[in-house]
Write a structure and sequence with these properties.
The complex is a heterodimer of chains A (419) and B (250). Chain A is mostly helical. Chain A contains 17 helices and 3 strands. Chain A is globular and about 95 Å long. The chains are: A mainly alpha (419), B alpha/beta (250). At the A-B interface, helix 13 and helix 14 of A face helix 2, strand 6 and helix 3 of B. Magnesium ion binds next to helix 1 of chain B.
Chain lengths: 419, 250
């Protein structure tokens, strides 16, 4: 029924009208091609040129990959995974993987959203590693971790596990990981020496395990520092405020590698002399933590700025004290808002940890360098550097892209009340 | 100290002055509010209505003059400020619910953490309050899932959960679609009937006429005229008051 535009009053007796399908040219494969790839001549040319270039690159890459010499990576797979960690004690990192998988599973079931995405990614990875014949024991560990992940997921989804308990489990998982990898606790300065296995020197830790560990420990330790710095910077105590501003700007004005070198050379100056010589790993982690904290503070500050004034006022009007106001109202909202930024920072840190190869730690890139120089491959024409670096890059990419994919998915539905 | 004496006014503001930088936002504002009284504050935009009621619970600090709430002098002493805030509930134009908490969590947060109430008890009381404002079925939702009128009713319930002696309202219906204003005003009318002391900034003249014990007219940071609704709507005295009422009732 057409609108009668001439009459002064008119009633649409047809309301509500049923929805109709869009024109056929807008839907389906052909419609999509037309509206996206071949809009006009210019657009069509661009599409075709891009496809040709892409075809050229991909075919060349595939051809190279098929003909390439992957043996060095295959035979060194253990070193790429855990560095020089003693083979007889690999059950210790295996336990860590089992523990983390179980935690991921339960959390994914309980919390959903981002953790579920990450847990799914972990599951795919574990499944792949369980199926590739990397070695029976390792495959069993992968399969076991996958099983714990899945079982954990169903437990988390069915049983009401208190959030607090789960959070505490996560927090405790970090020291537990370190103790498991070390084989005990050893602080001669404090008279603590307890072991359940031969102690594994941290200089032997390496590969993907070390890369992960550096990034996770770096973010975890820098988190509370970063939050405090952000709060201090926004607070109204001038001395604290300028200290925080100074710290943040100073650190952000310096490349990580200089901090790493400073950590290596200067850290002992700041520690009590009876603590002994901090290990290379401790020095690197310290530098990474101080580095990461400054960036985290800026991310958190962004989240704090996004909280409307009305939230503070409502909390104050209800009589909440400053600490409760922060704890219950401001920080939960600010931190939720910056999860994507923090994930982004974690990905950056994950990649930046490759710098510790320059201060003598055997993370993924350093393992790659070492493998390239193994005498076995001296006879290989052209060397094996291409294969090794492509592999290392691929590993970094899988993890980084996986995490950023999950966090972008999350970003889209971060609004409250839309769950 | 509080509660036993019924003989003094529950809010006493004497010569309150407030500046934003050089700008004199409140000029010698004095007003006493009796227990169980409903005072409606009207006036043009920018006249200092919000600033005034926000000085009462120290969301804004006044620079001179005296404010005493239920016998507690409003000073820089944090304990006094917190005591006063525990006795005054506030409802904002923009609701200001906590978006990351469910409706019931919004309501129980302060009773549990400020009044140290048991969680069970706080939740029971919250459900009673939700019944009272007519939306018990929304308890488990997030504020973002509610209409504006429902959100404002939750905000009222949240303030009431602290068992305040005074309720301050700053244009509680100004951000609402017309069809939702009624449901919020009805809750406020019921609250007034129950004997709550209320200071309400509003442009709802129907509410002012029907519910207010006294109306305060402010302009340019000053109180211009105080009187009963009858006085205001039949024999306003000051020219500024007449002009304002003419415009708003037109
Ligand atoms: N935070 C502030 N900083 C500077 N000026 C302000 C601030 N808040 C309010 N004012 C000014 O004080 C005056 C009174 O504001 P307000 O109390 O919000 O008026 P009303 O609620 O009557 O509309 C206005 O001129 C306003 O611009
Ligand atoms: Mg106002």
């Amino acid at each position: 029924m057409a609108t009668d535009v001439h009459s002064p009053s008119w009633v649409n007796t047809n309301h509500p009208a049923p929805p109709q399908r869009p024109p056929a040219s807008e839907v389906g494969v052909l419609g999509w091609l037309r509206t996206n790839l071949f809009i006009d001549i210019g657009n069509s040319i661009l599409t075709i040129v891009t496809l040709i270039v892409l075809y050229y690159i991909v075919t060349n890459l595939v051809q190279w990959a098929i003909g390439a010499y992957w043996t060095p990576i295959w035979v060194n797979r253990k070193i790429f995974a855990v560095g020089l960690y003693p083979t007889a004690q690999l059950w210790q990192p295996a336990l860590v993987l089992l523990m983390v998988s179980a935690l991921f599973g339960v959390s994914a079931g309980q919390w959903g959203s981002m953790i579920r995405g990450l847990g799914f990614g972990l599951g795919v990875l574990l499944l792949a590693l369980a199926l590739i014949p990397i070695g029976l024991e390792a495959q069993l560990v992968m399969a076991g971790s996958l099983a714990l992940l899945v079982v954990g997921y169903f437990i988390g989804a069915r049983l009401p596990i208190p959030n607090k308990l789960l959070s505490i489990a996560w927090i405790l998982s970090l020291p537990a990981t370190l103790i498991l990898l070390l084989g005990g606790l050893n602080f001669p300065a404090w008279g603590i020496s307890w072991t359940f296995a031969p102690l594994v020197d941290t200089n032997l830790w390496g590969g993907l395990m070390l890369t992960m560990l550096l990034a996770v420990v770096g973010i975890a330790l820098s988190f509370p520092i970063g939050v405090l710095l952000a709060l201090g910077r926004r607070g109204n105590l001038p001395v604290i405020k300028y200290f925080c501003v100074g710290y943040i700007e100073l650190i952000r004005g310096v490349p990580l590698i200089t901090l790493l070198f400073m950590g290596m050379t200067m850290l002992p100056l700041f520690l009590p002399s009876n603590w002994g010589n901090p290990s290379q790993l401790v020095r690197a982690v310290t530098a990474i933590t101080f580095f990461s904290a400054a960036y985290l503070a800026e991310n958190v500050r962004g989240g704090l700025q996004a909280i409307p004034k009305g939230q503070y006022e409502a909390a104050e009007a209800l009589g909440l004290g400053s600490f409760d106001k922060l704890r219950f109202i401001i920080l939960p909202q600010a931190l939720t808002k910056v999860i994507p930024a923090i994930v982004g920072q974690f990905i950056g840190l994950f990649k930046d940890t490759s710098l510790v190869s320059l201060v003598g730690l055997l993370e993924l890139v350093a393992v790659g360098k070492a493998v390239i120089q193994q005498p076995e491959w001296l006879g290989v024409p052209g060397g094996v550097a291409k294969e090794v670096y492509v592999f290392v890059a691929f590993v970094f990419f899988i993890f980084s892209y996986g995490m950023s994919f999950v966090s972008r998915k999350l970003e889209n539905k971060l609004g409250f009340g839309k769950r | 100290m509080a509660g036993h004496a019924e003989d003094f006014d529950i809010i006493i503001a004497k010569n309150v002055n407030k500046w934003y930088g050089e700008f004199h936002a409140l000029k010698n504002v004095s007003l006493d509010v009796k227990r169980r009284e409903v005072v409606v504050v009207i006036g043009p935009s920018g006249s200092g209505k919000s600033t005034f009621i926000r000085t009462i619970n120290r969301l804004e600090e006044h620079q001179s003059g005296e404010i005493v709430v239920d016998g507690i002098p409003l000073t820089h002493d944090v304990r006094n400020i917190e005591a006063i805030r525990m006795e005054t509930g506030m409802v904002f134009q923009q609701f200001n619910l906590f978006p990351h908490l469910t409706v019931i969590q919004n309501i129980t947060l302060a009773p549990i953490n400020v009044r140290k109430m048991k969680k069970r008890e706080a939740e029971e009381r919250a459900m009673q309050l939700l019944e009272r404002v007519g939306i018990p079925e929304q308890a488990q939702k997030y504020p973002g899932q509610l209409s504006g009128g429902q959100q404002q009713r939750v905000a009222i319930a949240r303030a009431l959960a602290m068992q305040p002696k005074i309720m301050l309202f700053d244009e509680p219906t100004s951000a609402l679609d017309p069809e939702m204003i009624r449901e919020v005003l009805e809750v406020m009318e019921e609250l007034a009937e129950s004997g709550m002391t209320m200071v309400v900034v509003t442009h709802e003249m129907g509410f002012a006429r029907g519910v207010a014990d006294r109306i305060v007219f402010m302009d340019a940071g000053e109180i211009v005229e105080i009187g009963t609704p009858e006085h205001f709507f039949t024999t306003p005295q000051h020219d500024r008051t007449k002009l304002f009422l003419e415009q708003i009732l037109k």
